[in-house]
Description:
The structure holds two protein chains of two kinds.
Chain A: H1 2-7, E1 12-23, E2 26-37, E3 41-45, H2 52-60, E4 67-72, E5 75-76, E6 87-90, H3 102-112, H4 117-130, H5 146-158, E7 164-168, H6 176-193, E8 196-201, H7 204-210, E9 213-218, E10 221-226, H8 228-233, H9 238-243, E11 248-256, E12 259-262, E13 265-268, E14 279-284, E15 290-292, E16 300-309, E17 314-320, E18 325-330, E19 339-343, E20 350-353
Parallel strand pairs in A: 3-8, 3-9, 6-7, 7-8
Antiparallel strand pairs in A: 1-2, 1-4, 4-5, 9-10, 11-12, 11-14, 12-13, 14-20, 15-19, 16-17, 16-19, 17-18
Chain B: H1 8-30, H2 42-47, H3 50-83, H4 86-101, H5 104-115, H6 120-127, H7 139-163, H8 167-175, H9 180-209, H10 212-218, H11 225-234, H12 239-263
Helix pairs in contact in B: 1-12, 3-7, 3-9, 5-10, 7-9, 7-10, 8-9, 9-12, 11-12
Amino acid sequence: MTQENQGKTSQEMIRLVDIHKEFEGETVLQRINLSIAKNEFVTLLGPSGCGKTTTLRIIGGFEHPTSGDVMFDGQRINDIPAYQRKVNTVFQRYALFPHLNVYENIAFGLHIAKKDGKEIKAKVKAALNLVDMPGFEKRPIRSLSGGQQQRVAIARAVVNEPKVLLLDEPLAALDLKMRKEMQLELKNMQKQLGITFVFVTHDQEEALTMSDTVVVMKGGVIQQIGSPINIYNEPQNVFVADFIGESIILEGRFLEDCLVEFAGRTFPCVDKGFAPGEPVDVVIRPEDVDISADPESAMLQATVTSVVFKGVHYEMLAETAAGQEWMIHSTTMAPPGQTIGMSLKPDNIHLMKKEVQGT
Amino acid sequence: MRRNWSLYPYILWMVLFTIVPILLVLYYSLLADGGGFSLTLSHYARVFEPLYLAVIWRSILLALVSTVICLLLGYPVAMILAASPAKQQFSLIVLFVVPMWMNFLARTYAWMSLLETNGIINTVLGFFGIEPLSMLYTSGAVVLGMVYNYLPFMVFPIFTVLRKLDPSLLEAAEDLGANPLKTFMKVIFPLSLPGVLSGITMVFMPAVTTFVISQLLGGGQFTLIGNLIQQQYLRTYDWGFGSSLSIILMVIILLSMGLISRSNAYEEGGIL
């Protein structure tokens, strides 16, 4: 798996080894093994309660694993308190100090580190330039907008030149447009500063846009680790497929290598290695369904039941003769009531092992 | 401004029971002795005689000492209360409040029987062969009485502020390299200042004006400004001098409150 390949590089920054975490007898993290390389942008992605924030807080030193090790730059840091770790955090609600102004907030860490006065001044100025807020030094925190507070929180963290920056859903409180802007800015900033980013979000689009590596989590367990393209195109299970983008998930039966049966007929595919006759989940991306106005020559026939215009594409629901509902994303539109033909290319059919209860 | 009729009863109340009495006190403090309506500043001049200045100075000093002790004792208590889990918090607060349900005089008398020469503490010490200590009727006893009675007034405002403190601010400080002591100095304490200042006000004011505590625990010879005023009104019937002392005391309190609210620049409305 990907995590093992990464683990072998000498540029490893953080390594979580078999992390287990319980809160009052309830397991929130199980067997977390994760390696984060230097200068990597890693996103922990999952629905709320999946353990992504707890994982981040364990790296930051705000939570302690019930068992397992946290390695930082080759050293075990389980017992190192948060204030001695070379990481800085951008908190979800920014956590700016209300009794200090912008300058004092950003200079907080440098003052603690007893840096020289001139140096502090220069660094704060550079940090404010970095987040595009020059001249805001004297402003009280209360007078700033959400987006500005966000930027100050980032400046306050990066000014300390941490080896790793932890970001706990930092964009969640911003409106859509601001969020998109900040996504790009954060990505640029990460390249420019050359520090490792560990980013927590529940927004799959955000994760795909920004990350080098995405870690999908559910119920305290890592589901898949991979590049955005890998995660999107080769989801390892139904949960990942469903959580990352839209998916059609159908019950099917593996017949032999590269041949699967679902929706009442057989399809050529590219998956191998299941037992003949084994029930499988078939995952298809809505944009991979090719539709045509000539149903006879297509693989499947269906009747369009609804159409929603989504800007770039149309989102259509179509019902097959067997009563299955398919979601289709297409730039061509078929009106409700029309019978259409649907075809699938072999490499767009993804087969997955049936979920066994409890994993 | 819009007229709001519902305010009128309160305005009437304020005029009758606050403004008129203060004006009356002010009037008596300026009224010359020996009948008639001639005004004089002679009562105020008496206040500045060394004998009475010493009393005022002693009152301020003891009140200050008690306030500082209350702060030093009360702040950790407030922190412990604020940090304790919700269930325990309630019972701890009840434990703290219950003594206040008992009459103030009864509590102070209880200290007399503890501290007196043949009192409980000396009796216990006697078992160990220790000579009786004279604890009652000392300035220490008065400070003890003030601290004992007014400590809750320091604890609760600080507790209220600390409880509302956003825990992520403490994590942010830790994240930026601040150890627990620095986190306290740079984040917790500055953000709790409104509570500290209102605690100081609520302890200092009753402490500087008290006459019961000083009378009972300080004995007859231990005079504070509160005792002096009481004597003028109830024993020597020198209303003019008593009133001028009251006005001076009011000025002292107003000045100290002004100082406190000026240093409370960060958050408005921190006092009370």
